[in-house]
Amino acid sequence: MIKLTPALVAGAVAAALAWPIYPAAAFDQGSLIKPVDKPLTLVFVPKVVHPWYDVVRAGADKAVDELKSQGISVDVVWDAPPQADVADHNRRIETDIARQPDGLAVSCLDPSTNVQLLTEAKAAGLNVLTFDTFCSEDFPFVGHKGDEQDGRDLADFLAEKIGQKGKVGILAGSLTATNHAARVKGFKAAIAAYPDIQVVFEQPDDDSLEKAVSLTENALQANPDLAGIFGSNASNPIGAARAVVNAGLTDQVTIVGMDDLPETLQFISDGVIAGVKAQRQWEIGYWAVKYMVAMVQNHTIPHEHATGSQILTKDMVSGG
């Protein structure tokens, strides 16, 4: 038991008095948050016009509805090039910077040129973030960065499905898109562990469904014994599946790829596509809108919001 002496009491009082006492509410951190007192315009620049982004847009629309109920009016503008063309993509970014929107979200098609433009946008005072495809640590990112691992996972999945032997092909997407390239890198690294599997073709389809069909048709003609195809984006598994069905080779060629567009899910249910790694792109649109509005309000936001991916197979899609 500690005996209280005059010296101990005096010391305790002195210690208490040493901590400064400030007037109540001398600094309110809530005052750092800026009210939104006007309608906001947010611009999204995807890599290309594509149904994959329709799901991103649905998430964005949900966020807009929620903000409206809070008295915040948001107009979301989508400005996508019809083809995955770097020059057109950059022209759109430049034009959108000149509009001085309240927020600018870009899916990088060519990091080497996109980053320069986004840096200029940030210097001009725009609230900038990137979505879908990562390109630089200089900007907040909403999306999935585990692309190389997705490629590895799909390589192992395909190898298992074809008995770890046979000829396979790669539809490589857009060569400048970092997520497509990372998936191909991961696939090739993992498939190299199977000595009896041979990669017999690797072609960019530029995120074009029609080109993916044509490339697959050519590959099937050149390799009648083709056992498998890996698609690095959301379009090319569908293109590969259409070509394989048209050739009557559904039971011979195993297809794996990315994402869960409605036609992809139907092909999985029908047993044409064996499986895909699906991203949660609805989340990308939802959080991109929420974060850009938060930036306008001077809130802090996470530098990276990882939305993840999961594998989908027939059992998961059809429930049987």
Structure, described:
The protein has 320 residues and is α/β, with parallel strands linked by helices. It folds into 2 domains: 32-144 and 281-308, Rossmann fold (3-Layer(aba) Sandwich); 147-278, Response regulator (Rossmann fold, 3-Layer(aba) Sandwich), CATH 3.40.50. It contains 11 helices and 12 strands. It has helices at 6-18, 52-69, 86-98, 111-123, 147-161, 178-191, 209-222, 236-246, 262-269, 281-296, 314-318; strands spanning 40-45, 74-78, 103-106, 128-132, 141-143, 166-171, 197-203, 226-231, 254-258, 273-279, 304-306, 309-313. The strands form 2 sheets. It has a 6-stranded parallel sheet, sandwiched between helices. β8, α8 (236-246) and β9 (254-258) form a beta-alpha-beta unit.
Which percent range describes the beta-strand content?
15-25%
User: Mean pLDDT, nearest integer?
Assistant: 93
Q: What is the SS-derived class? A: alpha/beta
Highest CATH level, the class of the largest domain? Alpha Beta
How would a textbook summarize the main sheet? 6 strands, parallel
Radius of gyration: 26 Å
- Overall 3D shape: elongated
Q: Any idea how many domains? A: 2
Q: Give a count of the beta strands, DSSP E runs of length 2 or more.
A: 12
CATH superfamily of the largest domain: Response regulator
H/E topology pattern? HEHEHEHEEHEHEHEHEHEHEEH
The neighbouring-strand order within the major sheet is 2-1-3-4-5-11
Cα-to-Cα separation, first versus last residue: 71 Å
